[in-house]
C-alpha cells in the first residue's frame, strides 16, 4: 500500500486529488495540508511513502517544506505537482529533494502512474521538464567531477561525515573540505544536502536499490 499525503493550498484541487486517489486500490491517503507549515507537521507525523506537493504555498513554500522534512527524515519521496515548468521552479525543486515533477494538466492516469513509479524508486518527470534537465546537464558538461571528487561524493551520498570520508580515502579533513568546496561549485549547490539531491537526481551517483 502506497501511503500518500496531499499538499495544496486550493481546497478544490486538494479535495479533488484526495477523492480521485481514494479509489486506487494500492493507495491510502494518510494526510493532507493546505499550507507549508501544516505540511511539514503532517509529513513528519505520518512519514508517508509519497507526498504530492504544490510549490506555491502559504507559510512555507514547497521548496522549504522539502528542506525542513529532509533535515529530519529522508525516506519520504516528493512528487511536485504544479502549474510551473520554468527553470526557476524546476531546478530548486529538484535540488531541495523532489524525485518527481509533474504539471497539473496531467491526466489522472499519468498522475497515478507517476505515483507508482516514484514509490518503486523511479523519478517520473514531465517531458518538458526532462528536456530542460538534459539541456542543463549538457551545458554543465565542462564541470565534470574528478575521480577523487567522485569518491568523496559517493561517500557523501552514503551519509559519511568529513572525518569518515577522510579516513576511508586516506585524506586529511582539510583536503576533504577542499574537495567538497569544488564539488559544490561544480554542481552549483551550497550545501551537503543539495549536493546529495543533485547527485541522485542527475544519476551522477546511482541510487542503491538493494536496501
Which helices and strands, and how do they pair?
Elements: E1 2-7, H1 11-21, E2 27-33, H2 36-46, E3 50-53, H3 62-70, E4 77-82, H4 87-96, E5 98-103, H5 108-119, H6 127-139, H7 147-157, H8 162-169, H9 173-187, H10 192-201
Parallel strand pairs: 1-2, 1-3, 3-4, 4-5
Short structural description:
This protein is α/β, with parallel strands linked by helices.
Q: Can you describe what's shown?
A:
With 211 residues, the protein is α/β, with parallel strands linked by helices. The protein folds into 2 domains: 2-137, 3-Layer(aba) Sandwich (Rossmann fold), CATH 3.40.50.2300; 142-201, Orthogonal Bundle (Arc Repressor Mutant, subunit A), CATH 1.10.10. The protein is built from 10 helices and 5 strands; from the N terminus they run E-H-E-H-E-H-E-H-E-H-H-H-H-H-H. It has helices at residues 11-21, 36-46, 62-70, 87-96, 108-119, 127-139, 147-157, 162-169, 173-187, 192-201; strands at 2-7, 27-33, 50-53, 77-82, 98-103. A 5-stranded parallel β-sheet has the order 2-1-3-4-5, with helices on both faces. The model has no long low-confidence stretch (mean pLDDT 85).
| Sheet with most strands: strand arrangement | 2-1-3-4-5
Unreliable runs: none
Q: What would the CATH topology of the largest domain be?
A: Rossmann fold
Protein structure class: alpha/beta
Could you give the distance between the termini? Answer: 18 Å
CATH architecture term of the largest domain: 3-Layer(aba) Sandwich
Q: CATH-wise, what's the superfamily of the largest domain?
A: Response regulator
Highlighted features:
211 residues; alpha/beta; Rossmann fold; Arc Repressor Mutant, subunit A; 2 domains; five-stranded parallel sheet
Amino acid at each position: 500500500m502506497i501511503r500518500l499525503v496531499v499538499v495544496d493550498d486550493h481546497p478544490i484541487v486538494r479535495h479533488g486529488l484526495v477523492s480521485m486517489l481514494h479509489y486506487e486500490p494500492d493507495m491510502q491517503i494518510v494526510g493532507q495540508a493546505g499550507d507549508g507549515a501544516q505540511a511539514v507537521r503532517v509529513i513528519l507525523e505520518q512519514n508517508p511513502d509519497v507526498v504530492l506537493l504544490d510549490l506555491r504555498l502559504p507559510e512555507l513554500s514547497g521548496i522549504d517544506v522539502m528542506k525542513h522534512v529532509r533535515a529530519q527524515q529522508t525516506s519520504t519521496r516528493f512528487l511536485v505537482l504544479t502549474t510551473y515548468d520554468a527553470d526557476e521552479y524546476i531546478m530548486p525543486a529538484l535540488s531541495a529533494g523532489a524525485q518527481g515533477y509533474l504539471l497539473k494538466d496531467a491526466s489522472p492516469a499519468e498522475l497515478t502512474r507517476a505515483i507508482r513509479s516514484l514509490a518503486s524508486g523511479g523519478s517520473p518527470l514531465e517531458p518538458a521538464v526532462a528536456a530542460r534537465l538534459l539541456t542543463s546537464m549538457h551545458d554543465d558538461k565542462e564541470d565534470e567531477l574528478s575521480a577523487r571528487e567522485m569518491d568523496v561524493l559517493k561517500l557523501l551520498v552514503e551519509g559519511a561525515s568529513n572525518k569518515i570520508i577522510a579516513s576511508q580515502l586516506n585524506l586529511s579533513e582539510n583536503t576533504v573540505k577542499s574537495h567538497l568546496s569544488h564539488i559544490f561549485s561544480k554542481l552549483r549547490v551550497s550545501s551537503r544536502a543539495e549536493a546529495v539531491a543533485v547527485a541522485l537526481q542527475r544519476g551522477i551517483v546511482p541510487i542503491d536499490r538493494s536496501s
